[in-house]
Amino acid sequence: MILFRYLKLLYVQVLIGIALGVAVGFWGVELGALAGLPAGKNLGVELKPLADGFIALIKMIIAPVVFVTVASGIAHMGDMKKFGRVGIKALVYFEVVSTLALLIGLAVGNLLQPGAGFHGAASAKDIASITEAAEKAHDMTIVKFLLDIIPTSFFTPFAEGALLQVLLIAILTGFACTRLGAFGARVAHFLDDAGKVFFSIIGIIVRLAPIGAFGAMAYTIGKFGLGVLVNLGFLIGCFYVTAALFVVVVLGLIARVVGFNIFRFIAYIRDELLIVLGTSSSESVLPQIMQKLQRLGASRSVTGLVIPTGYSFNLDGTNIYMTLAILFLAQASGVHLDLGEQLAIVGVAMLTSKGASGVTGAGFITLAATLAIVPDIPMLSLALIVGIDRFMSECRALTNLVGNGVATLAVARWEGELDRERLGEELKRGPRAHTDVEMDDLLAVGGKAD
Length: 450
Fold this sequence. Notes:
Proton glutamate symport protein; about 75% helix
């Protein structure tokens, strides 16, 4: 009976899915032969549609969730000065913590020098894959990024899943509701009711997370193998340890100031973290993390503004990865970067990192965009790490998720919109009462309205 009770927990199911995915990916060729696949075909690689399908289902619901949450929050808020104040506080927090993450990656790269004496060789296939990344990086400019926030039509962002465009439309809708008096209030209540429907849909989709994690991990191990971890193990180890220390020390100190324990917070969002680990995308849990932060006592308006914005402007894991990876490539290529050049890289990375999103592999594109300003480091050197990017993506996404969760609670406390008593009670109780056993709790939008 005890075993059956644990098997009902979502995080246990996801862990089982990840473990099975690793096994299938590792022995994929042998299993593929038993399954009747052509010789040499890896069964794990063929399971990628399971992961793609799950992520597609989640992305299907992200845009409407963000829209109703933000628009309703602003409509209930009423005070436009407050909205601007929250936005400014969020951006200040993002810039300070993101810059700190860049500097930490730079410091670790200089201290440990993971690329010094590296003798690895890039394959022709890896070199060929750099072309696409370089082309996408070439298109990343500040002007284009800002213009891309403006949608071509009202419904286009919902069809394409363009998060910042959806956020812009939601803000305008919320503002419009505040100007329409009683009618605007009725629209806001309609948005609240629509939100309950969308979160109910999430409650259905999230039960498929173990299957998505299984397919994603089977594909990752089957496609890239465990061999790449050996050749570039030191770089991977440096990044994972640095990210872990950033979460425990930097985010832990911020959490302590806000009034909670970082380890309890991590335990509270364990389901989301495991889903991210399996899918390598923090975007796959965006609706769920918004819901949990509201349950922790952060107001709906602050959560609705900080989380979607943070997915583009507060990418701590991506920032650590960029400066650490650039120093690795410089050291591996025999290129010396003086202090001035390294600080210039930090300055450019502060801009290029803002264009990344929670989609798998976006960090690699921003790395290519940042590398473009260092002409001494050949762009083709990216081929040295393209094989491990999927493994690095998991850590980037995990760090980004925790960072945005802490940011939301910090901004909510800063604004006086955090119920600290509720925060303490929820963290003590843990997530099981909400998401692991009782499906009915997923029907509630949660969080207090302003």
